[in-house]
Specification:
The chain is an alpha+beta fold. The chain is built from eight helices and four strands, in the order βααβααβααβαα. Bound molecules: adenosine-3',5'-cyclic-monophosphate. The site of adenosine-3',5'-cyclic-monophosphate has 8 residues, from loops. InterPro entries: NDK-like_dom, NDK-like_dom_sf, Nucleoside_diP_kinase, Nucleoside_diP_kinase_AS.
Length: 156
């Protein structure tokens, strides 16, 4: 299987609202494989790289300070076409307009406090993975259940 990996980060609002378990559960129930997870306090240095593409936008300073008000929980999920699947489960940025059934659509109403970050492309996922996870923090393991999650063709 040509598996992709995607970085999901539960933002400070998700942690404060006690939604970490619910968020993990949504990705688990979908059938994605958890290959890395940790809690961390973001710093200006990491955020400068993490949000480099938002630098200069009016909301950037507030976004950076918000992401430091509490720790975050970073996860690495793996699966076939994982980046797109995670984005679909996440919903659009403006949470109050996100589709019902998505994490943001069901659990949030704000544009800034939208609970989680999800990698928006394969390239960004690779960049974010390197920024947050060391090699020892990424786990390769077999999940026997995958024969009931993907077809034989999809597993090849
Ligand atoms: P995300 O898409 O994960 O990454 C960029 C973040 O910036 C976004 O989630 C929101 O948390 C925040 N953001 C994007 N647009 C705005 C906005 N117009 N006002 C405030 N925050 C925003």
């Amino acid at each position: 299987m040509q598996a992709q990996r995607s970085v999901v980060m539960v933002k400070p609002d998700g942690l404060q609202r006690g939604l970490v378990g619910e968020i993990i559960s949504r990705f688990e129930r979908k059938g994605l494989k958890l290959v890395g997870i940790k809690m961390l306090q973001l710093t200006d240095e990491v955020l400068e790289h993490w949000y480099a593409h938002h630098k200069g936008k009016p909301f950037f300073p507030r976004l950076v300070s918000f992401m430091k008000v509490a720790p975050v929980v970073a996860m690495l999920w793996e699966g076939l076409d994982c980046v797109q699947t995670v984005r679909m489960l996440t919903g659009i940025t403006k949470a109050r307009e996100a589709e019902a059934g998505s994490i943001r659509g069901d659990l949030a109403v704000s544009q800034q406090l939208n609970l989680i970050h999800a990698s928006d492309s394969i390239e960004m996922a690779q960049k974010e993975e390197k920024l947050i996870f060391s090699r020892e923090e990424i786990f390769e393991y077999k999940k026997d259940i995958e024969v009931f999650v993907y077809s034989e063709e999809e597993r090849e």
